Each structure stands twice: as structure tokens, then as C-alpha cells.
Amino acid sequence: MAETVERRILGRMSPSDEEIVINFGPQHPSTHGVIDFVTQTNGEIIRRSVPDIGYLHRGMEKIGETVGYPGFMPFTDRIDYLAAMFANEGYAMAVERLLKIDVPPRAKYLRAIAGELCRISNHWVAVGTMASDIGASTPLTHALREREAINDLLEELCGARLTFNYARIGGVSFDAPEGWGEKILNYLEHLESYIQEYDRLISLNQIYVKRLANVAVISPDQAIAYGLCGPNLRGSGISWDARRDLAYGAYPDFTFDVPVGQGKMGAVGDCWDRYAVRVLEMRESAKIIIQALAKLPEGEIMAKVARKPKPEPGEAIGRVESARGTMCYYVVSDGSEKAYRVRVRTGSFMAMGIIEEMSQGLMIADLIALIASLDVVAPEIDR
Amino acid sequence: MKITSALDSTSLTTRYPKTALLTTLFFMVALPFVLYLVLLLMLPFNRPEALDAVAQRLGWDLAHSTFRDTWYGAILLVEATFVALYTAVFAGVTTWVERRIAGRMQSRIGPNRPGVFGFISWVADAFKMLFKEDLIPAEADRLLFRAAPYFSMVGLTLPFVVLPFGESVVVADLNVGVFYLTATSAFIVVGILVSGWASNSKWALFGAVRGAAQVVSYEIPAGIAIMVPVMMAGTLSMQGIIRAQGGWPWQWFACQNPAAFVAFFIAMTASLAEGNRTPFDLPEAESELVAGYHAEYSGFRIALFLMVEWANMWIMGALAVTLFLGGWQIPGVSVEMINQTRGTDVFPTLVWFGWQSASLLVFAIKTWLLVILFIWLRWTLPRVRVDQMMSLCWKYLVPGAFACFIFTLFWVMVPASVHLVSGVVISLGVALLLVKFALRTRKNIAQVKGARVDLSNW
To answer: Could you write out the DSSP letters of every residue in A264-331?
Structure first.
């Protein structure tokens, strides 16, 4: 009889009389979706916590092989519903490379604006749920209120508030509506002043800082060894950002900083650093949007693409800097209307690997802080 | 965005039908105020002579009847029932207040459906809880699981025996009042521990053990800090401690003695921890332990636990008001003045009742302000970690409380004029801080650009 996952994990644990094994999840208020953290603890001190994933596996990659190239686009939304713009964009980029299409500059700019708005909205959820996991529920509702404003803007652009389905192979689905840029600039002015208030409310709150500083410190070497990416990698002090270092889309045209963890409150790579990187990234995204709106070129928003594209046999990779790290689509074509293989590499999945090592010796409340600081989203882990 | 307030008088009558307004008014005024009124009117019956007088007027010689003690006991039982009811009504109203304040702080609406401003929602919640299925987990210790909420209930109701409401409105002015209160309120943790153990759930067990460690630890700084006003008043009686203070802020213990000022904050922090309120809500830490010790409870039993938690805020607030903030003392009115108006009759004069209700009001307002402070803290602060909670207690609060204790030993020897100077200086300093706080808050609010205040649906 095949060994179940639980049995395998429990077998590795072999708790002594002093210890108990407890399931953090799959239904738990702070696991950010259906994930199970099988945790061996001695009282409040955790001996080891092993993530048991797969509760939300929907076979996305297999679906990508059966629905045809344009048909897979709405499915990519569901891979990361909090940052769906990037999931769209990454897939579109991979297929565009297969088809050897040049995307019109206006479409590239619109992707960048929509993407950065989406990044701000995602980071609001990330910093809000983090505060909520630490026990303060007010920052979460404030963050969600800010996110609603961005959802309104994106709804005006593409009609959807969560699963945008905005990017198309060869461009984007809708042009920016009249007066949209003005509304964005108004919001960004509010955002800048509101982030200051948010910092006063929670980021610099002494209880909050003490809960996060020096907790679950991920060294730069560990971050690279475990393949962390995005804000989690930058939180450990490594300046790597696909937008700057791979210079895809419209990003070479903009100047922006890549915030990294500096260990302001404790050691470099602690939970507070990963949190602070996200707050700072919202400001950088705002900078990018302002530049993109100023330079937004006129012209087409779609390249000429066949209704049922048949790429030459070959393979292509689309890499974008998603809100949760570098999101990577690997698409293989056999010359037919449908992809031969679609594979997705996501930031949340990479972040799960490090939990077993980092959790050793943490307290129960710290494990929650660690999971929250990695900003994982269950559907992105399982796909 | 146009900012409209739900408090506009025109909108109130148009927004709600007359029946809704009247029902809300009934619950809002009738329940809490009738409770207070009954407590007031029953005051003379604390003495059997009042009962005799009433019976005599009805033409019945109760004073020489064999049933005199039975009747007296029955009247006291009614009085006790009303005091116990007070906890339930207070807990209910506080859930509404807390949810409204939380809604406002979190820029959402909060309960606004049943009754005007959603005031009846707490009554609706209570009924909902009663009709919910009362589940006992299969593997639970059934007897202890059922018994646990009552341990907490006992811990909640017993302190009301000595808690004062007004100048003469108190169930019993025990000469060991403060000691009795700290001893009986510790019963709540027995309920927490028993419920966590009996639930046979790991989450509940974690919560229970955390709760036991926390409450037992914080009893120590709380106990020492409470000794500061006890020493200053020279009595353990709650009413005695209040009588030793005055109505004006500079006559309060918290202002009269710098050490008492510190002890006030130590006692408040400790009582937050004992009441399991944020930032010390570790036993039921939602994001860590799901619901902690009451994770397995439902229906009426969870209602009891929640009622204990909210009504406990009254005890926390009332204790701090009694010990440090002058209790029911009315500014400019001395206790002698009130006593002179009583008259020599068995039934006191109407003026005396007036002063009693004034003292009731003063005490209630002060306590409500502290309760609102607790609510405000809960919706602002994150939660501390277990080790931080312990180190705060043993490394800072216990030595701090001891220092206050030692300081007060010497302070009681300095002349009263020094107490007055200290009282004026500290109360002025606190007033200045409050003004500065208000100005700073206004500046911070103005600094955020763009409309965000919308009270139209509040």
C-alpha cells in the first residue's frame, strides 16, 4: 500500500514523549489558503515544521496542454489570483517568443502600468495580512480599502477586479479609457501620504517590530541555495530584480530603485526586512507608473496574431518579476495548435522549501510570522 | 466626496421607521437605566428596617413576624439578581460599542441593521447564540467541558459583590474588598484551564496553558501595584479607598503620588493581561491558535465565555477607577455633604437620591472611558509573543511595581501639601499631553491626501 503524505511526514518526525505533532492547516486562519504545516512542537518551541502542499492542485499545467495557446490565458489568472497581471504577462511573453511576435510599444507600456498597479494591490494584501497574522486586524482592513481603489482602476481598464485576463498573445485586450491616467495620478498622490500613515500605524509599532526583527533570519547564502526569489530574496539583501536585470517589456525605459533588506531593525533577512521591502516596493511601483503615464506612446495595442496560432516546433521561456518573485513560464511547441508542454515556476512554491529549515527552534507565533513574511499564496504553490 | 454624518437629526427620522426608533430607544434607555434605577431604589432595603416600614404602611407587622428574615433575604436575592443581570447587559452593550468603534477605526460600517445604529444587534446575537447547536466533541471530558464556563462565570460575578457603583450603591462594602476582588476574579483562569483541558483539542490545550501562565504571572505585578493606593488610603475597603480621594483630578491617587501614577499603568497593563485583551490575547490568539481555549465551544457555552470576556472589562475599568481615579467622587461635592442630605428617616430624601445618581453617573462615565480605551488598544496593537509577555511581566512590571511600593512607603510620610503639589503638577501634565496628542492626531489625519472619511452609511 502506498504511503500517504501525512504518514511520510509523521514518520520523519518521530516525536518523543515531550513533543506533540500538530497540524497548522489545511484550515487555519493564517496559512494563506489551504496548506498544511505539520508541526512537531515541544510546548511553544517548534522542533520542525514541514509544509504538506497539494490541497489546491488543479492541474493547471496539464490544462495548458489541452486548451490551445490563447485559451490558456484565463487559466493563468487562477495561478496567482492576487497578482493575476503578472501571470497573464509571463504566459503571453513565453508564447510571443515562440511565435516571434513583436509587441507594440503602447501595449508594453499598458502592461507595465497595469502590472505595477497590480503589484501595489498585491503588496497591500501582503502587508495587511502580515499585520493581521501578528494580531493587529486594523491594518488589514485599511490595506484592503487601499486595494479596492486599485481594483476600481483596473476594473475601468479591463472590466475585472480579480482575474483580469488582460494580456493577450501579442498585446493587451483593452486600451486605457479616457481620463484613466488622471485617476491613477490622484490615487498615487494619496498612496504616498497614506503609506506614511500606515508606517505610523503598524510598520514602526514597537510590538510589531519586536515580533518581526531577528525572527527567522534567512542569510543571503540560504536565500540563494533555496531558490528564493522576489521580495523574499531581496529581503535577504540580494539586489536581483527581473525588471531591471532582464530588462523585459517597457521596463528599460524607466528608472527605479530595487529596495533590499538592510537589517534596519535587526539582522539582514529577518521577517521585518521582508516586510519592509514590500512597503518600499509600493513606492517604486508608483514611480514606474508615473514615468510610464508620462511617456505612454500612441499606437496599436495588439500585434497581428492568427486566431489559432501554430508556432514552429521549439521552446520558449517567459520570465517576469511577479509580486511574489520571478514567475517563469516554460512553453514547448510541437507545431500544433496546442502546446506540447506548459510549465510554471512560481515564487510561492520556491518559498515553501525553506520553511522546514527556518522553522527549527522558532516559537509558534514566529512560524506564523515566517509564513506571512514569505507572502505565499496557496494556488500559486499547487497550481 | 461629500461627508455626511449618520448623526444628522434629519436623516435619523427619515432613515428609520418609527417602530425601529422606539424599539431601539427601549433597549438603549430601558435596559441599562432601569437596571441602575432598580439598584438605586432598592438601596434603603439593604437594611431590614426599610422593609418593616413598608410593611407597616401596608398594615402588616413584619418586624415581629417569624418570616422577617425570609422576606429580607428574598429582597436581597432580587437585588443580587439585578447586579448579576448588570454584567450580562453590560457585556451585551459593550459588544455593540466595541463592534461600532472597531468598524469606525477600520473604515468599515460595523453592525447597523437591527434597530437604530444596529443597537439591538447584541440582543439578536444573544438569541442567536441560544438557538445554536450545543456541541460537545466526542472525545471531550463531558462533565468538565460543561462545567468550565460556569467557573468563569463565578469568577466574573463574585467581584461584583464589592465593586462600587456609587456613593452608597454597593452590594457589600467588605473590609477586605480589594483582597476579595483579586482573589475571586482569579476564578476565571480556572474556567480557561478546565475548558482547554476538557476540550481534548491541541489548540485549546495550548490556549489554556498560555492562559494559566499569563494570568497567574500577571497577578503578581497587579497585586503589588494595587497595594500602592491601599497604602495611601490605609484600608482594603473599596469604598474606603474612594473616600480617601477627592472629586477633582488632583485629588486622585494616580496624580497625588508619582509612584501611584506609574502603578496605575502597571495595574492597567496587568489587568489587560488578566482579561486576555489585546496585546495580551494569547490564550485565544486567533491567527495562531484558531480560537484558543474556547475553540471547541459553541452555542450557549461560548456565549458565556464571551460574556465573561466583555463583562470583565467593567471589572478592569471599575477597579482602576476605584483605586486610582477617584471612583464616584463628584468634583466639588464632599461625602459629608451627601450624607447630610439623607435625613434621619428610614427612607432617604429625594436630594440624597439625586446625589446618589450623580455619583453613579460619574463612576459609570469614568469606567466607560477606560473601557473605550481598552477597545481602542485592542483594535490598534498587534499581539506580543509568549516569551515577550513573560519577560514584560517578570523583568519590568514586577520590579517596577516593587519600586512603586517602596516609594509609596516613604511617600505616605510626607505632608499633605506635597501631595497637593504633586497632584496639580501631574494632572496638568496629563492634560497637556492629551492636548498635544489631539493636535498631533489632527495633523496626522490632515496629512493624508484624498477623501477617505465617509460616515454616510455608519
So the answer is: SSSSTTSHHHHHHHHHHHHHHHHHHHHHHHHH---S-SB----SS--PPSEEEEEEEEETTEEEEEEE
Whether the per-residue pLDDT at B453 is higher than 70: the answer is no
Quick: pLDDT tens for B151-194: 888 888 888 888 888 887 787 788 888 989 888 888 888 888 89
* pLDDT tens, position by position, A335-377: 888 889 899 988 888 888 898 888 888 888 899 899 989 888 8
Using the Cβ of A162 and the Cβ atoms of chain B, whether some distance falls under 8 Å is answered with: no
| H-helix or E-strand spanning residue A72 | none
What's the pTM? 0.85
The three-class DSSP label of residue A20 is strand
Q: Do A207 and B381 touch (CB under 8 A)?
A: yes
Nearest 5 degrees, angle CA B95-CA B100-CA B104?
Answer: 145
Flag whether the ipTM exceeds 0.90: no
- Shared domain for B392 and B250, answered yes or no, is yes
- Across the range B412-427, mean pLDDT stands at 85
pLDDT band at B5 (very low <50, low <70, confident <90, very high): very low
Give the domain A60-382 fold.
Cytochrome-c3 Hydrogenase; chain B (1.10.645)
Residues B263 and B202 both lie in one domain: yes
Give chain B's domain count: 2
Instruction: Report the gap between the CA of A138 and the closest CA in chain B (Å).
Output: 5
Tell whether B191 and B111 lie within a shared domain: no
Rounded Cα–Cα distance for residues A250 and B292 (Å): 50
Please name the residue of chain B whose CA is at the shortest distance from the CA of residue A19: B202
If asked whether residues B142 and B127 sit together in one domain, one would say no
Cβ distance B386 to A200 less than 8 Å, yes or no, reads no
Comparing CB atoms, the residue among A28, A132, A197 nearest residue B448 is: A197
Task: Name the residue ranges covered by the structural domains of chain A.
Answer: 60-382
CA of A139 vs chain B CAs: smallest distance (Å): 8
A136-158 pLDDT tens trace: 888 998 888 888 888 888 998 98
Q: Which of A24, A32, A49, A134 to mutate to test the interface with B (most CBs of B within 10 A)?
A: A134
Tell me the residues of B at the A interface, defined by beta carbons under 8 Å apart: 102, 105-108, 202-203, 206, 209-210, 278-279, 281, 285-290, 379-388, 444, 447-450, 452
Nearest-angstrom CA–CA distance, A186 and A311: 43
Measure the N-to-C terminal CA separation of chain B; round to a whole number of Å: 15
pLDDT of res. A120: 93
Looking at the structure, tell me whether residues B115 and B167 fall in a common domain.
no
- For Cα atoms B236, B238, B239, give the angle at the middle one, nearest 5 degrees: 120
Question: Does A202 lie at the interface with B, CB-CB under 8 angstroms?
Answer: yes
Whether residue B108 is contained in a domain is answered as yes
Q: Do B286 and A29 touch (CB under 8 A)?
A: yes
